[in-house]
Structures are given as C-alpha cells and as structure tokens.
C-alpha cells in the first residue's frame, strides 16, 4: 500500500495524510535499523518514493503537490538520509551454537526454497552458502515460480533458451517481471463483506449476519483499497 502511494498517489494526499504517511515511514525505517529485518523492502520503497518526488518537484510550477515546496524538498532530504542510514546498516552476525540452516538435509533446504514466491528472495538466500546457491539455480524451481506468477501464454512470448538449448527459467522470470505484474501474496489480507459492508482482516474475521458468510467475502488488494477512496 505504501509503495502504491509512493508511485501514483502522492499528489492526492492531504496535508494530514502527508504527515501520517511520512510518520509511518519514519517508524518503519527506525524499526528496520533496530531489528535489521527485511531492509530490502524499505530500500525499494524509498527508491520509488525519491524517484517520484524528484519528478514531481520539477513540476512545482504546475502545483502538482499539496503544500509548500520547501516542505517537500525537506522531505526528500529526509528520504535521502534514510537511504544513507540503510546503506550503512551493518547486519549483526548471529552467534548460535545450535542447529543452523546449513545443518538441514538437502531435501528440507530444497523444500524451503520452493515455498518462496519472490525471485529476489531466492537469489539472496542462494548467496548464503555454496549448497544453497546450487539449489537456488535449479531450473525446475524457477519454472515453478514462472508458472505460479505468469500465464502460459505470457511466458511463451518471451522464451529465453540457454546455451544448451534448454529454457532459462531464471532469466525468464526476471524478464517476465518487467512486462507483467507478479501475483501478490501477503501474510494477511483485507476482506470486504458485501452483506455487512464491512472491511476486516481475514485472520480476524467479523460477526457476519448472513446465512452463508463465505459467499459474501471479497478480498481487497492494496490497489483495490486505494480505489475505494476514488470519487
């Protein structure tokens, strides 16, 4: 949701929404700096945000941004500061004398890789050990990933053969990612009940009064959530 706002909705934010948005970003950055959890996602978000802001600030004469231009320039400087802090982030080496990822059998490591839905996560995990790198280069793994995210007619248009004549599914995945959106996957999702006209988190649920509540539920993606506020 934050990334979609950064890419396309900044010009529609009110002054209060701007403050809330950047306060949330500040909390996320500080949280990542503290626990070092998943810094790549916030780096990508800040890169999208800074790119969009640079373009919009150049169009200041057209009044494309709500609020004083000096405030937005200050916010852009804050984003650049956050990016520098994340760039300088030193990941602490975990000291643990117990069982590690490398101690797991090959079939278990392979099973873990097959549960990833993001190609960059697979590439990153493959950099941990030579064994994981070997498993992360498996053609079948990348083929399954392509089939999960893209329709057959989509990757048939962009077949990339390797030197041996086989389809290079890893290159295919990253090539297709440039042309088509990948399937969205979240730990928890918003749902809308058509019977009660209520938004709720799927894991939390809500006391629906319909005779068959499951027939009334509709998942709400981040883009759909933003669209609910368009008039």
TrEMBL record:
Keywords: Nucleus, Ubl conjugation pathway. InterPro entries: F-box-like_dom_sf, FBX25/32. The keyword Nucleus applies. GO terms for biological process: protein ubiquitination. GO terms for cellular component: cytoplasm; nucleus; SCF ubiquitin ligase complex. Coiled coil: none annotated. It is found in: Nucleus. SUPFAM superfamilies: F-box domain. Transmembrane segments: none annotated. Pathway: Protein modification; protein ubiquitination. Substrate-recognition component of the SCF (SKP1-CUL1-F-box protein)-type E3 ubiquitin ligase complex. May play a role in accumulation of expanded polyglutamine (polyQ) protein huntingtin (HTT). This is F-box only protein 25. The lineage of its organism: Eukaryota, Metazoa, Chordata, Craniata, Vertebrata. The gene is Fbxo25.
């Amino acid at each position: 949701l934050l990334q979609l706002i950064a890419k396309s909705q900044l010009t529609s934010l009110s002054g209060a929404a701007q403050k809330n948005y950047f306060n949330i970003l500040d909390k996320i950055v500080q949280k990542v700096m503290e626990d070092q959890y998943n810094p790549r996602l916030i780096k990508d978000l800040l890169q999208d945000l800074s790119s969009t802001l640079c373009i919009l600030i150049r169009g200041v004469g057209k009044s494309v941004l709500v609020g004083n231009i000096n405030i937005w320039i200050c916010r852009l400087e804050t984003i650049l500061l956050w990016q520098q802090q994340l760039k300088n982030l030193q990941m602490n080496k975990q000291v643990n004398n117990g069982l590690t990822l490398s101690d797991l059998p090959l079939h278990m490591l392979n099973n873990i890789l097959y549960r990833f839905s993001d190609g960059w996560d697979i590439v990153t995990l493959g950099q941990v050990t030579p064994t994981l790198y070997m498993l992360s280069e498996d053609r079948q793994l990348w083929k399954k990933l392509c089939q999960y995210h893209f329709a057959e007619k989509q990757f048939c248009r962009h077949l990339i053969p390797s030197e041996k004549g086989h389809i290079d599914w890893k290159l295919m995945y990253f090539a297709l990612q440039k042309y088509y959106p990948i399937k969205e996957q979240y730990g928890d999702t918003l749902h809308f009940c058509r019977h009660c006209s209520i938004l709720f988190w799927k894991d939390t649920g809500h006391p629906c009064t319909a005779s068959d509540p499951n027939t009334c539920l509709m998942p709400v993606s981040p883009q759909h959530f933003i669209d609910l506020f368009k008039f």
